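Changelog note: in this version the structure field was regenerated for every chain. One regenerated record is shown below for reference.
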Amino acid sequence: MRAEVARYIVLCLALCALSGCASRRNLIAENLANTSSREVELVGTPFFPQQEYQCGPAALATVLVASGVDVSPDALTPLVYLPGRRGSLQIEMQAAPRNFGRLAYPLARNLDAIIAELDAERPVLVLHNYGIPRLPRYHYAVVIGYESATSSMILRSGITQRQVLSAATFMRAWDNGGRWALVLLRPGELPATANAATYLESAASFERKASPTDARLAFDAATRRWPDQVIAWVGRGTAEYRAGSLPAAARDYGTAVRLDGSNIGARNNLAMTLLELGCPSRAREQLEEVKDAELKSPLREAVLDTRQRLAAAAENITRRDATTCAGTP
């Protein structure tokens, strides 16, 4: 009997935390930008009722299909579901979309970031915690809309196709879950509330599995939005290099070096590309700016490897070398 009473007390505390003690403030109205709609509902968002403990694959399938990927929760289960934990971790949820040509972008931890993505017609994957600190009960759901007049959020959640929560209840569960939220981007798309550092970090992770074409699109969008970001040019240069477009790669690496001459990684990449283009003298010029003693691993090893390749190249600077390489960085 005492155990049943204890469970009842815990349940009451959880309900109080999520609903009964909720604020009456209109949280959505407070977070609406001037360009926001008063209400949005992405009714075309698919719905996959979850099986026990498998809200992760179901929620991830929801946002993947919404972004144009043909996939089922069953296909995602081996990628994100951990039987030992009877659930899915954020790191797997963030990594799995790369297998399907989608860039996962973590949102800023505020409600207006979610609203901005909904305004841009992107459903938002969120992590909720419906328990209490000592007894967490985590749950993935997908936000598909909001209503300013009623201060409510609309979700695909669990076995409920259209779950309506007050914004205060939503925020309490999201707070308890660490305010983690994610949107999926097609290559070349930018999020509505794009942050350069966050996007470039996501794009770098995306590039490891992406095709050269998709990686180029992701970094090309970054160079247009943030033309002064060195990493964006290095990323696009690497995509061009992987695609076999060495002159384009050299141009992008050269832009990165002009923006920041102290970026040794960009210089080394440029030197390697110039060497493969048959321009050893230009490659050597780049490495003359690098002091090996100041380098740390793994960059040190990369630069030393480039120097060895240069040493193995022809020592003579021919007329063809000077002519062919005249337009290179």
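Spot check on this record: The chain has two domains: 2-185, 196-324. The longest helix spans residues 2-20.
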